[in-house]
C-alpha cells in the first residue's frame, strides 16, 4: 500500500545525511565535550562547528546559541529565564491565545508563581492586531512571547513590527520559530528578536535536541543548575550526536531553503486546490495570504476529524486533526477556538503538513483517495446536507 506522510509539523523523517554525520559521535568519537583530553576536544570542536552551522542558518553569532533538548525546553528556558531574572523590574508577561502549549502552559505555571500573564486574542484569520499588541504592553511587562508561524494553521505573525515596538518599550521579545526555521527565511537580526526557539526534529533532524537563540547582552536565569556548560546558561553533559545532527540539519536546511517555498508551496497548493475543488463543504482555517508554505488546515463539514484521520490512515495517509485529545474526550483545538466560529467545524479540521521530502505523486494519491472517503463518511452522517 502507498504510504504518504503529511504530518511533518508533528515530526519529520531524519535526513540520512544527518544520520551519517551523527553516527561517529555514538561510536568512536564518543567523548564528553567538557573533557580536556583529545576525545573531549574532538567532541567539543564538533559541538562548536554545529553551533556555527545553527547560528549561520538564523543570522546569529555563535555565542548566542544555547543547545537545549528541543523546542519545549527552549520555550521554557526563554520564558522562565527572562521572567525570573528580570522579576525586580516587573512581573507581567504578554503572549497570545494561539501559542504552543510549551509557551501557554509555562505561562500558566508562572502565573501560579505570582507572575501576571496577558493573552492577546486573534482575529478570524488568526492574526494579532498590532494596535491591541501595543495597548497590552504595560510598564511592568518584562517579556513578550509571540510565535512566528503557527503549528496548527501556519499563520505568520508580524514579528518584525512587534519586536520593534517591544524594543521601543524596552521589553524583551521571544519568538517560537519551531515551525518557521528552515521553511521560510528566519534571520534574528532582521526580525529584531531577543530570543528565538527552534527544534531539530521538525526539520529532518534528530529528536530531543533544539536551540535557544539569546541575543548578546540579554541575561536569563538557567532552567537547569549544575556544571558551567553552555556558558552557564544550560547545565548538563552535551548531547553531542544530537547537536552534531542539528548542525548538519541546519546546514542542509540553508541549501534546501532556496526552493522550499516554491517547490513545497506548489505541492501544498495542489493539495489544497484538489480538496477544495473536489469536496464540497470544505474551508481553509486561518489566513491564506500570511502563512507558511508547507501547511494547510481544512475543515470538512459534518465529519469528525478523528474519524477522517483514521480512515486516511487505513489508506496509508498520515495527517493530524486540529483537535486535542484530553482524557478521552476530543476537544476542539485552542488555536481554532481562538479564531472563533462553530466548534463543530473546528472538530472537523485536518492539518496537512508537508516537507521537502514529499512528492507530486504522493499529493496526487491523497487527492484521489480523500474525496471518496469523505463522500462515504457523509453518506452515513445525519447532519450532512449538500448546499
Ligand atoms: C510551535 C512549536 N513550539 C514548540 C514545539 C515543541 O518542540 P519539541 O517537540 O522539540 O519539544 C512544537 C512541537 O510540536 C511546536 O510546534
Index terms:
alpha/beta; Aspartate Aminotransferase, domain 2; seven-stranded mixed β-sheet; four-stranded antiparallel β-sheet; 13 helices; 15 strands
Describe this structure in words.
There is one protein chain. This protein is 42% helix and 16% strand. With 387 residues, the protein is an alpha/beta fold. A seven-stranded mixed β-sheet has the order 2-8-7-6-5-3-4, with helices on both faces. The chain has a four-stranded antiparallel β-sheet with strand order 9-10-15-12, covered by helices on one side. The protein has a two-stranded parallel ribbon with strand order 1-11. Helix 6 (159-168) links the parallel strand 5 (141-145) and strand 6. It is globular, with a radius of gyration of 22 Å. The model has no long low-confidence stretch (mean pLDDT 96). Bound molecules: pyridoxal-5'-phosphate. Pyridoxal-5'-phosphate (PLP) is lined by residues 70-72, 75, 100, 102, 147, 151, 176, 178-179, 199, 201, 210.
Mean pLDDT: 96
Percentage of residues assigned to helices: 40-55%
User: Which CATH architecture of the largest domain would you pick?
Assistant: 3-Layer(aba) Sandwich
Low-confidence spans: pLDDT under 50, at least 5 residues? Answer: none
What is the CA-CA span between the terminal residues? 35 Å
Count of discrete alpha- or pi-helical segments spanning 4 or more residues: 13
Superfamily (CATH H level) name of the largest domain: Type I PLP-dependent aspartate aminotransferase-like (Major domain)
Major β-sheet strand ordering: 2-8-7-6-5-3-4
Total number of strands:
15
Succession of helices and strands? EHHEHEHEHEHEHEEHHEEHEEEEHHEH
- The top-level CATH class of the largest domain is Alpha Beta
Rounded Rg:
22 Å
Q: Which class do the helix and strand fractions yield?
A: alpha/beta
Characterize the main sheet.
7 strands, mixed
| Global geometry | globular
Amino acid at each position: 500500500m502507498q504510504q504518504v506522510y503529511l504530518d511533518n509539523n508533528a515530526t519529520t523523517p531524519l535526513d540520512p545525511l544527518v544520520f551519517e554525520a551523527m553516527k561517529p559521535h555514538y561510536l568512536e568519537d564518543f567523548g564528553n565535550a567538557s573533557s580536556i583530553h583529545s576525545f573531549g576536544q574532538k567532541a567539543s570542536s564538533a559541538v562548536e562547528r554545529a553551533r556555527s552551522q545553527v547560528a549561520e542558518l538564523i543570522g546569529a553569532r555563535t555565542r548566542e546559541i544555547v543547545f537545549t533538548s528541543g523546542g519545549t525546553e527552549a520555550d521554557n528556558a526563554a520564558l522562565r529565564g527572562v521572567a525570573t531574572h528580570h522579576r525586580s523590574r516587573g512581573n507581567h508577561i504578554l503572549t497570545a491565545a494561539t501559542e504552543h502549549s510549551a509557551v501557554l502552559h509555562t505561562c500558566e505555571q508562572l502565573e501560579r508563581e505570582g507572575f501576571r500573564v496577558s493573552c492577546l486574542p486573534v482575529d478570524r484569520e488568526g492574526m494579532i492586531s498590532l494596535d491591541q499588541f501595543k495597548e497590552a504592553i504595560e510598564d511592568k511587562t518584562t517579556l513578550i512571547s509571540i510565535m512566528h508561524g503557527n503549528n496548527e494553521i501556519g499563520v505568520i505573525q508580524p514579528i518584525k513590527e512587534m519586536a520593534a515596538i517591544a524594543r521601543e518599550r524596552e521589553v524583551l521579545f521571544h519568538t517560537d520559530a519551531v515551525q518557521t526555521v528552515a521553511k521560510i527565511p528566519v534571520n534574528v537580526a532582521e526580525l529584531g528578536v531577543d530570543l528565538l526557539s527552534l527544534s531539530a526534529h521538525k526539520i529532518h533532524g534528530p529528536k530531543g535536541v533544539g536551540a535557544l537563540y539569546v541575543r548578546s547582552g540579554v541575561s536569563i536565569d538557567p532552567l537547569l543548575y549544575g556544571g558551567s556548560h553552555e556558558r552557564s546558561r544550560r547545565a548538563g553533559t552535551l548531547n553531542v550526536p544530537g547537536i552534531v545532527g542539528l548542525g548538519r540539519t541546519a546546514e542542509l536546511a540553508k541549501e534546501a531553503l532556496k526552493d522550499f517555498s516554491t517547490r513545497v508551496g506548489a505541492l501544498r497548493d495542489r493539495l489544497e486546490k484538489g480538496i477544495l475543488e473536489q469536496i464540497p463543504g470544505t474551508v481553509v482555517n486561518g489566513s491564506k495570504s500570511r502563512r507558511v508554505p508547507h501547511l494547510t488546515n481544512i475543515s470538512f463539514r459534518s465529519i469528525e476529524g478523528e474519524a477522517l484521520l483514521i480512515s486516511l490512515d487505513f489508506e496509508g495517509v498520515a495527517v493530524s486533526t486540529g483537535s486535542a485529545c484530553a482524557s478521552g474526550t476530543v476537544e476542539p483545538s485552542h488555536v481554532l477556538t481562538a479564531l472563533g466560529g462553530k466548534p463543530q467545524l473546528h472538530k472537523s479540521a485536518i492539518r496537512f503538513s508537508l516537507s521537502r521530502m514529499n512528492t507530486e505523486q504522493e499529493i496526487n494519491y491523497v487527492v484521489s483517495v480523500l474525496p471518496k472517503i469523505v463522500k462515504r463518511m457523509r453518506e452515513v452522517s445525519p447532519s450532512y446536507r449538500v448546499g
